[in-house]
Design brief:
- The complex is a heterotrimer of chains A (181), B (234) and C (602).
- Chain A is α/β, with parallel strands linked by helices.
- A five-stranded parallel sheet of chain A has the order 2-1-3-5-7, with helices on both faces. In chain A, strands 4-6 form a two-stranded antiparallel sheet.
- Chain A contains six helices and seven strands.
- Chain A has one domain: NADH:ubiquinone oxidoreductase-like, 20kDa subunit (Rossmann fold), CATH 3.40.50.
- The radius of gyration of chain A is 18 Å and the shape is elongated.
- In chain B, strands 2-1-5-3-4 form a five-stranded mixed sheet, with helices on both faces. In chain B, strands 6-7-10 form a three-stranded antiparallel sheet.
- Chain B has 234 residues and is of the alpha+beta class.
- Chain B has two domains: 72 residues, Ubiquitin-like (UB roll) (Roll); 126 residues, 2-Layer Sandwich (Alpha-Beta Plaits), CATH 3.30.70.
- With 602 residues, chain C is α/β, with parallel strands linked by helices.
- Chain C has five domains: 55 residues, no CATH class; 90 residues, Glutaredoxin (3-Layer(aba) Sandwich), CATH 3.40.30; 214 residues, 3-Layer(aba) Sandwich (Rossmann fold); 72 residues, Ubiquitin-like (UB roll); 87 residues, de novo design (two linked rop proteins) (Up-down Bundle).
- In chain C, strands 6-12-11-15-13-14 form a six-stranded mixed sheet. A five-stranded mixed sheet of chain C has the order 2-3-1-4-5. In chain C, strands 9-8-7-10 form a four-stranded parallel sheet, sandwiched between helices.
- In chain C, helix 12 crosses helix 15.
- The chains are: A alpha/beta (181), B alpha+beta (234), C alpha/beta (602).
- Chains A and B meet through helix 4 and strand 7 of A and helix 3 of B.
- The structure holds flavin mononucleotide and iron/sulfur cluster (3 copies).
Chain lengths: 181, 234, 602
Amino acid sequence: MSKPVIATASLAGCFGCHMSLLDIDERILGLIDLVEFNKSPIDDIKTFTKPVDVGLIEGGCCNSENVEVLRSFRKNCKVLVSVGECAIMGGLPAMRNGIPIRECLEEAYLNSPSVDPEDRTIPNDEDLPIILDKVYPCHEVVKIDHFLPGCPPSADLIWEAVTALVEGRPLQLTYDLIKFD
Amino acid sequence: MNDVRFMIDGKECLGKPGQTIVEAAKANGVYIPVLCHFEGLKPVGSCRICTVRVGGRFMAACTQPLIEGMAVENTAPDLEDMRKSLIEMLFVEGNHLCPSCEKSGNCELQALAYRYQVLAPRFPYLWPRRDIDASAPLLMLDGNRCIQCLRCVRACRAKDGRKVFAAVDRSRRVKIEVDKKLAAHLSEDQARRAMDICPVGAILRKETGFAVPIGRRKYDAVPIGSDVEKGTGR
Amino acid sequence: MAQEKDIVLRYPKDPSALLDVVRDVQNRLGHVSEEAVSRIAAHLKLSEAEVRGAVTFYHFFSLTPRGASTVYLNDSITSRMKGRTAVARAFEEEAGCRFGEVSPDGKVGLFPTSCIGMNDQEPSAIVDGVVFIKLSPDRARAIVRGLRAGTPASGQVTEFGDGANQSTLVRAMVSNNIRKRGPVLFGPHEPGAAVRKAVSMTPEQVIDEVKKAGLLGRGGAGFPTGLKWEFCRREKAPERYVVCNADEGEPGTFKDRVVLTELPGLLFEGMAVAGYAVGAQTGILYLRSEYAYLRARLEAVLAGLRKEGILGKNIAGSPGFHFDIVIKSGAGAYICGEESALLESAEGKRGEPRDRPPFPVQAGYLDRPTTVNNVETLATAARIVVEGAAWFKAMGTPKSAGTKLLSVSGDCARPGVYEVEYGLSIAELLDMAGAPEAKAVQVGGPSGTCVSKAGYQRKICFSDLPTGGSVIVFGPDRDIFEVVENFMEFFIEESCGWCTPCRAGNVLLKKKFEKVAQGKGTEGDLRDLEAWGKLVKATSRCGLGQTSPNPILTTMQNFPELYEARIQKGRDFVPEFDLAAAIQEGCAAANRQPACKEADHE
Ligand SMILES: Cc1cc2nc3c(=O)[nH]c(=O)nc-3n(C[C@H](O)[C@H](O)[C@H](O)COP(=O)(O)O)c2cc1C
Ligand code: SF4
Ligand code: SF4
Ligand code: SF4
């Protein structure tokens, strides 16, 4: 029997959740025995090459590319998990959410004292993803099946969740595992 | 005066006449979750998280006095889900970025979310634009985290009795304001008390914070309410 | 121009004077300036934050200037149905500013406001305290031009309404539109007869008569009036109060306005009868500020009653029975119709409801036992005392005795006030009002029920379709979703903001409703609407939140096909998120064209 397949992505996140995933110490060896990684920054596979059982998403959606990646994860993964505060509620990037995006861009690229006076332009290269009006939690864009809170979620929580999901048992989230920081 | 006999989820309890359900439950070792209530302050029933059911009717346990023979439902699944909904509502109504909040780990709203296993709110985030007022010398008031519990309004007064905090505006726009003139003359003690009375990280004493390391904060290891349930509540 | 000081110092150094001072300052200076806040706070020994709190609670008070003249244009659904949008546009074009703003020259401010009690003559607006009805875009432009040219609003009233609206102390364009006069309120009444009859009985006998008549409160909650008076009388206290609730804020009601205009004497007699029954010496008429144009006449009627010995000391020849009435004003807050919020407001505070117990009959105005009754209830009680319980009980249904004033508006040929016996069916009412094609009828205002054709045999009475008086008719072409959205917006705006479910829950309910209305709903979303509606009703602190989900819940119940048709059946997740909309502003700011791959696709 082939091993369950996992894919991961970091959208508008800081890679902290991925670090936490790698922070499971020697259990990582067990994990590698247990599962196979597909599209993920961990193995640098850039596109989906087969159907995935569990997709882990770090970060919320702050630009059009995040949305595309998230949607492709939804298409290719049986179970999709929001990992960490940014995926769940936008996290620190969402601090801009109360402020109109134009104001944010103008502050960052036109008016801030650190801007080069010779080059006051809002980046507009056609290859750049387009910034969204707000940072969106993943579950407001696609259906998300599970949520692992924390900034980052503890290695124990990720271990518990990933093993439960690939083994097909319900998640046991004890008090010490649910933390928002 | 004679004790009042009442029941919570089938458990026989005794309370004092005039006592509220929340206080009487606590004295009987039963935890009813509260957020706006604070012992010693006049209850205001603003958060509604203590909602219980008596004879099919819903009521706030923090404001309802005991009635002889009343049978209080406290942990029915639908009630608990309503409470969870209200907690989630408070999260989406404000801007709660726990990872960067000084109160994290000691915050009662967050602690309730832990107790009720709030993983992601069922409601969409509203992302209101709210102000931070850091003009007072000792205090900072961050509207992003205020849950309108009115504890500060009730508890904090200047020496002559004037209210240091007050609610302004109404509806979804309602917010807590600190009186600029009174706040300019707060003593260290008054400032501390204001911070301590605030269940969340909306009122902060400046130049302190992040004093207790992660892992040793109030709600890191034990759920809110466990003191009451173990009978160690005052 | 240290006017603030002069105004403030005229008031007693008593916090309960707060709203009176604020009103005075607002009326004279057009706003409550920082200077005024500071002076009021110092004078009344309040903190400035508290003063700002009270000012900002009320719609008609403001910390910033509202213009030399201020237009408050009614935003009720009926106003919209009768052409508000075009009128609003005309106001904006002529004034040169949007609603919510003051014109660049500072001459005119434009603001929306919740129903002002003119639903049978919409679109209506209050301009500097003067009511304008049946506005057209041309009239709106003319008003603004007139104001700019120096003609005050009062000088622009061209014709007067019917009845006492023409009296020299009112001179309002407002019409009564009394379509059906019933035997109770509009029956023949000899002035003073009710008070004279009451004092010939013992207070207990008066209470008993009202109880026997089976009079239930007309303000909405339907509490037995006699019982309320008995509870109030039984409380031991040095003083008791009678409060008449003339806040009439439920969108679509205006019948109390007609009683205040045409039957003020009967109403004041009812208050005196209540005073005699409960043992009170003071009555307070809490008059919504939208009806301030009636105040001078009401004061004159009170003066007349004093002269005739119907009010004052030892009244109606009864030694030892003293009773007089003062008028207090609201300032634009629907919640102040809720009795405990009304009491807070009458005491000069933010109009936030109180927790019960204690009930107002135990601890009401200034913590004294207080009976709060609706305008119609009190006027009806006066008639019961004169004509007797049996006479009253013979009308209506066994459990809903007597008659009810209905305010009928919307898509019907004869909008106005109808005094009908309880037990009337919706079909019969529609017949009277001339609305053969009605597709839906909102009974009891936004907090009531939206009835579909299938329910037209239902009856107006406490056990079937209770109503404080509001009946709004929707014709065949009306969009029920637009109605629901308007009602939800009303509750969101008028929530006092005290408790979580009402303050945040209604916003979330409306958001979810809009998702469904936009065709992005699923069956799960409909289940959420129901669950969240139940949650808000169950956990809210007062009657506002406990009924605010009704526009959604009652239309889901009575018009399920409308919801079914809007949702995407069989899909388990449809996001509200719309990529094309989300990138719009970012593209514009960076001067980019959204590439077609960014177009929204699932
Ligand atoms: C949000 C809200 C608004 C209300 N508005 C009014 C009102 O405008 N007029 C009124 O008479 N009662 C109103 N009521 C009902 C009052 O609280 C109270 O029940 C009534 O004034 C009692 O008088 P009654 O017994 O004569 O009906 C309102 C209640 C709520 C919850
Ligand atoms: S106040 Fe509490 S819930 Fe809000 S951000 Fe801070 S820790 Fe989190
Ligand atoms: S500032 Fe804190 S104490 Fe005051 S109302 Fe807000 S949450 Fe409550
Ligand atoms: S239900 Fe609404 S109006 Fe009533 S107390 Fe709560 S917030 Fe205020």
